[in-house]
Amino acid sequence: MSTAVRKDWDTYFMDIAYMVSTRSRCMRRHVGSVLVQGKKLLGTAYNGAPMGLPDCYEAGCMIAEEVELVNVDGKEQVLKKQRCIRTIHAEQNLLLFTDRIDREGSVVYVTDEPCWTCANMLANSGIKEVVFHRAYPKDTQKVTRLMEQMGITFRQLQNYEPPQDTIAPVSN
Q1: What percent of the chain has pLDDT over 90?
Q2: Are strands 40-46 and 32-37 parallel, antiparallel or unpaired?
């Protein structure tokens, strides 16, 4: 009789986050998030339009372009970002649909590194750790710095392979 190898907790919860992301109807990026306290799953969320409103597949994306000045090697450079403003991010939905008391000291697993706005919200939510898989390089430096300042553990899962049939194309 062979013994099946049991997944570690990080893989288990990230797998769930990827399964949750399959509910997303965003054409640019499917993101899923889960809230965990101890080993107990307290909530799940994905990115999408507000409940009852047309999503991007039905009404198209609402793209807003943002410009940010960043300092690279002592020189200011312009960084352009395009964001869909029809979509509520997975982390935002997770915070909307969970209770503060449940978030205190909890861990958020999210398929994608949080953007600056989501990082700010997570920093103020009572969580103690954020674990993500796919990087979002446009905000990495400032999000990492914010998490350090807040004392929140912030880490990327390395050598992780999402479950089959959960990966959607990503566009920035």
Answers
A1: 70
A2: antiparallel
Whether the Cβ atoms of residue 72 and residue 11 lie closer than 8 Å to each other: no
Among candidate residues 165, 171, 66, 47, the one with its CA nearest the CA of residue 110: 47
**One-letter amino acid identity for 69?**
L
DSSP one-letter code for 3: P
- pLDDT per residue as tens digits for the range 4-37: 889 999 999 999 999 999 999 988 899 999 999 9
- Pairwise CA distance, residues 83 & 56, whole Å: 12
- Rounded CA-CA distance 123/129 in Å is 9
Residue of 32, 30, 39, 31 whose CA lies nearest to 10: 39
Separation of alpha carbons 130 and 139, rounded Å: 15
Q: What is the pLDDT of residue 2?
A: 66
Whether 76 is catalytic: no
User: Out of 91, 113, 129, 148, which one is annotated catalytic?
Assistant: 91
Give every CB contact of residue 65 below 8 A, 6+ residues apart in sequence.
80, 81, 82
